[in-house]
Automatic annotation (TrEMBL):
Family: Belongs to the ComF/GntX family.
Pfam family, one: Pribosyltran
Phosphoribosyltransferase domain sequence ranges: 218-271
Alphabetical list of InterPro entries matching this protein: ComF/GntX_DNA_util-trans, PRTase-like, PRTase_dom
Entry protein name: ComF family protein
Organism: Brevundimonas bullata
Record SUPFAM superfamilies: PRTase-like
Amino acid sequence: MSVQDGGWRTGLKDATAHISLGARGQVREWARGLLDLLLPPMAHDSREATASAGLSPDAWSRVAFLEAPVCDGCGAAFEYDGGDFASDRCVACQVQPYAFARARAACVYDEASRGLILKFKHGDQQQFAPLFARWIARSAADVLAEADAVVPVPLHRSRLLARRFNQAAEIARPLARTAGLDYLPDALIRATPTDSQGGKSARGRRLNVKKAFAVTEAGRRRIKGRRVLLVDDVLTTGATAEACARVLLSAGARAVDLAVIARVRTAREPPK
């Protein structure tokens, strides 16, 4: 090899070493797109090839994705855009705001999305995790842009052993990685086991998780003064996210926002 060849190779190596992480990410996305074009991925809900982000066209068309404008406090869709002078929060969030500052949901929790989420949560079909992370990345883009760290809603260790994985963590991990944010899976723990929230009233849900969560000492150091994005699967009444947000704020977090796959349409009702 000539001296000139050695210098050229060294220069190329140095130039390659200085490629930004963002550029490398773009190259990976381009390569993935080319691979999908040559070998279309299979839909998660059928055996047909799909270009619809992991779902068959039929399933994709039935999911009620939430588009702006949405309530800044709970993620509910507004029926129409009220313009520059409209409030960015629904009546319920104006009267009684949650402890978390803002919330975003990718879609409505209904017949179309419920089956997909339950397959992921209780059917051990973890292939849905990256799909749901992409949904949240889109719906919560503005919240992600201001976040410093991502924290999943934790499971108690007994339930984690039974289920073998934490569905919120499986979504939060790729979400944090793609956004370039700190992923803190051990910052927040469920210190006491709780009953299932299913079937409970809003008050019953709040009481069930009121003292269930705690911030670890290591977590306290890593969240202090930072804006935390809390990730969960479904927003039903907000009781679980509210309890998590309160302990994170008490431990020194500057603010807590919430991102979920789906929200129940009636998660927040206007005061009577």
